[in-house]
Amino acid sequence: MRRYIEQLINRYPVLEANEKEIFSAYEFLAKSYEQGGKLLIAGNGGSAADAEHIVGELMKGFMLPRSVSEEWKNRLCGVDEAMGARLAAKLQGALPAIALSSHSSLNTAFLNDVDGAMCFAQQVWGYGKEHDVLLAISTSGNSENVLYAAVAAKARQMGVIALTGRNGGRLRAIADVTVAVGAEETYQAQELHLPVYHCICRMLEEHFFHERKQV
Fold first, then answer.
1. What local confidence, expressed as pLDDT, does residue 211 receive?
2. What's the pLDDT at 214?
3. How far from the centroid of its chain's Cα atoms is residue 175's Cα?
4. What's the pLDDT score for residue 35?
5. What sign does the CA torsion over 56, 122, 23, 131 have?
6. Cα–Cα–Cα angle for 155, 58, 3, rounded to 5 degrees
7. Strand 159-164, strand 133-138: pairing
8. Which candidate, 17, 78, 120, 139, has a CA 20 to 30 Å from the CA of 52?
9. Block mean pLDDT (10 aa), the chain, length 215
């Protein structure tokens, strides 16, 4: 797995300072998935778009094939032979991930009825369980709704990974792992967040699906 981080640093030398934390974030997520956990992701604006991007890399094939096993093919065909065969040929192994910003009806209802700053926290409270992980994305590390979500996650005995800029902000004190990229401006931090999470997704895919592992 280290080679993926080495390749990342070769392309983005500024991320050398984050090498240890990036690998720790990968290990933290791999352990979560091995224990049956899922990933919840919270972020605002461009970070909300990053949350959806990460879901796209984890919930379907990224760089490797993720074919369905013979056992699952048989189960699918046992329900309906024709449709099951087509499903087995197309479905791909997934690492469960949810972008909390995507649930507009729930979020706007909670904003209108209760407290908009706690929309993400409400979803963490409803979805979260032990062995799950919250990826809290905030370039400042101080986004109020993301901080509330992190507190709720820790109370739910979830892990928390913070992806930030600057010095990590208030999230650093809550998170189990903080990747604080070396950028002060919001857009510059976001530019570095993308290669970081691509690297982590690539390592997770290699871990769970290398050599055409079937799921």
1. 58
2. 46
3. 14
4. 98
5. negative
6. 100
7. parallel
8. 17
9. 94 97 98 98 98 98 93 97 98 97 96 97 98 98 98 98 96 98 95 98 95 50
Question: How many other C-beta atoms are found inside a 10 Å radius of the C-beta of residue 115?
Answer: 13
pLDDT of residue 147: 98
Residues 6+ apart with CB under 8 A from 34: none
CA 62, chain centre distance (Å): 14
- In angstroms, the first-to-last Cα distance of the chain is 21
- List the CATH code of the domain at 2-59+94-210: 3.40.50.10490
- Report phi then psi at 24, rounded to 5: -65, -40
Q: What is the model's pTM?
A: 0.95
110-116 long-range contacts (CB < 8 A, ≥24 apart) are 116/145
**Do the beta carbons of residue 137 and residue 50 sit within 8 Å?**
yes
Q: How many CA within 13 A on the CB side of residue 112?
A: 6
Q: How far is CA 74 from CA 65, 69, 77, 93, in A?
A: 19, 9, 5, 16
Give strand pairing partners of 42.
Answer: 136
Tokens of 15: 């991320």
